[in-house]
Specification:
The protein is 33% helix and 24% strand. The protein contains 14 helices and 18 strands. It starts with 14 loop residues before the first helix and ends in a 9-residue tail after the last strand.
Length: 429
Amino acid sequence: MNGATFIPDDFACTIPGLNYLQTHSGNALLEAVIECLILRKKIAVADVALWRRQHPEPAVASAIAVAQSRLKAETKFPEEADRLWAVPEALEQATSARVAQYKARRIAELAQPEIVLDLCCGIGGDMLALAGISPVIAADISAVRAWMAQANALEFPRKHPVLVVQADMGEFPVRITPGCFAHIDPARRSAGQRGHDFASMHPGPAVIASLLQKVSSGMIKLSPAANFSTLPTGHLELISERGTVVQALLWTGAVGAELGENKRTATVIDRGITWSICDSIADIATPEMLAHRPEKWLYEVDGAVTRASLSGALAQKLNLKWLSPDGGYLTGQQRIEHPALTPFAVCDDFVFTESELFRRVKKKSLETPSNAPAIEVKTRGGLGLDTNQLQKQLSKLGGQGCTILIYRSARGKACVIAQRSEVATSGPQ
């Protein structure tokens, strides 16, 4: 991906069409599209034809894109969804309000910026949170997304002022000083194609490096699937929200050095709490670490911790043992409530074969109430198993209410039959 080929998908939105939506007639059009989507879940050709007879064609295309986005925005922007300006692709890429607020607090604590540059700002998900800690200059290469970011800044004003400009980062029109903090969200998708290679993002590494050299500290927002070995020097942080790893952050400059370039951070945002661990990167588990059999409790580790290679540090902190090579499953004698762990009470464990699994589940079904929750199957370690098919086959045998966890261990393929344990809201441990 480069400047010549980078094509943001703005879903046929245009500036004239968006301006029309801010008029009385345009707002009526937008409400009609939203009502249609709510009632019928889709838009018919006849609907579009009717709207085009009543309104300018560019406004109809813009209304459809904005309406689709608002109906999908509640999860990420619960307080702003019904007034948010967005296109579907930009909404998907946007940082949620909860994660953006966490990032803004961290930037304020660590960098204390005079001003924040939100570069490649999209529709302004991060920008709105950043404006709570500092004046913000935001920029995006897409005129449509820059328009939407500015509209969102006006719709949802914050403590500090926001200026949005439409610009390519290679030709940024604003003077950058060391007192600025640069938040950069390079595009990882062009013309519908998604990429994770840092070298192929837009703006490219040379432009990003040039921008970061002008500030004392900065942050690059990345996909959790990025190849970390190709990234510039900095401190890497992985963030999960509601059990899903949503983004990686590369802290650079003075803040990156302060956090430790030889360390990583994993942050879990869920159930009304925010928890982080910062430690040196642990090696992939050795066979000796995998020699353990499951004890009374098996723990599934949050993806931010495993992706940051910090399962070893967490296991040591909590006196737990490894089960799977990536540290995704840990085990121990005591039940632990922890933001980064999902606990399962171990009922049975054995070397995995399908026939042995079916035999044990059938036996367990005789002991299980018929009204128990459905069976679930979870795997780790690239075992090549069709979990959906396996789950269907096991459900026919009974065994409701149990979780089947299959993973690679020092004994080969191992299997645990367990009961999922409710996790109470708790603070860090």
